[in-house]
Design goal:
291 residues, alpha/beta, 8 helices, two-stranded antiparallel ribbon, Rossmann fold
């Protein structure tokens, strides 16, 4: 009996050891628990007041570069960037007429030729350039022969042909509406501009600052007889008796195609803009209805 007992006991102990080892390494079995959620009382439904406008149409939203402004406030547009040196070869003698071209942002844009007076330069028009660009005009400010970057000998008889050459070149410039051309001239520049405008079929309007009937041998009477559908604006200071009288004569000879405006301040030629800060706006309104 003793011999049978010890082998059986030994086998039992080995089996118990194996069972205990298995229990140490086995992962415990996870059983899901059942959590009871609390009952929630539904909240009252509120009808939101929807906007009756498109919020994405507000100023400064669709265009990230636009500055927001209060309703009803007008925005001053920044100057249109870019100016280009412009050169015209005079048909009379081959002189290179030099100026600056200031492009409008819109294309095609009506073109305006600016002609200074005796002793002037293209820079005389600087105060008017940006307002004209903002209003949608492409502008050519020319240094007339004998002046500024053009240089050469002063010759007003040849300058009449120069003005027509420049106006024609402006009309042929890319981005310029060749059917909508105009001229603005100061003193003798106004007389030369009027002659060029009458000779150019697509020139529809001319502005004469401090006009004259005869200056340096350049007369306007011949051009007045061929205005056809062209319109004129004459600007002169009340203190400038000679220009005021010349403007009245031109207005009478041109009939209903010319309008004279006498300004309360002083000044002559392009200096009229310094004496009357509203003059540029007046000129732009007139151009808007006549060109």
């Amino acid at each position: 009996m003793t011999r049978r007992f010890w082998p059986g006991l030994l086998a039992g102990l080995v089996g118990l050891g194996l069972l205990l080892a298995a229990c140490d390494t086995a992962e415990p079995t996870l059983r899901p628990t059942h959590t009871k959620l609390p009952s929630l009382v539904p909240s009252a439904t509120i009808n939101p007041a929807l906007p009756d406008y498109d919020p994405y149409q507000g100023q400064g939203l669709n265009d990230p570069t636009a500055a927001a402004a209060a309703s009803g406030m007008s925005l001053d547009l920044p100057p249109v960037p870019g100016d280009e040196p412009f050169e015209v070869v005079a048909s009379a003698d081959g002189l290179r007429l030099r100026g600056m071209l200031y492009r409008a942002d819109n294309m095609p844009a009506p073109g305006l030729l600016l002609l200074h007076g005796t002793g002037g330069r293209k820079e005389d028009w600087d105060a008017l350039i940006t307002p004209l660009q903002q209003a949608g005009y492409t502008v050519l400010a020319l240094d007339q022969r004998g002046h500024g970057a053009t240089g050469g000998a002063l010759n007003w008889n040849l300058a009449a042909g120069d003005a027509l050459d420049a106006l024609s070149a402006l009309g042929g410039t890319e981005g310029v509406d060749a059917l909508r051309l105009g001229v603005i001239g100061a003193e003798i520049g106004g007389s030369l501009g009027l002659d060029a405008c009458v000779a150019m079929p697509t020139c529809g309007a001319a502005v004469l600052l401090s006009p004259s009937l005869d200056v340096q041998g350049v007369r306007v009477e011949g051009a007045l007889g061929h205005l056809e559908t062209r319109t004129l604006l004459l600007l002169a200071s009340q203190e400038d008796a000679a220009s005021a009288a010349a403007g009245q004569t031109i207005e009478q000879q041109a009939g209903g195609q010319a309008e004279l405006r006498l300004l309360a301040g002083g000044g002559f030629g392009t200096s009229l803009f310094r004496f009357d800060p509203t003059l540029a706006e007046t000129l732009l309104r007139w151009l808007g209805g006549n060109l």
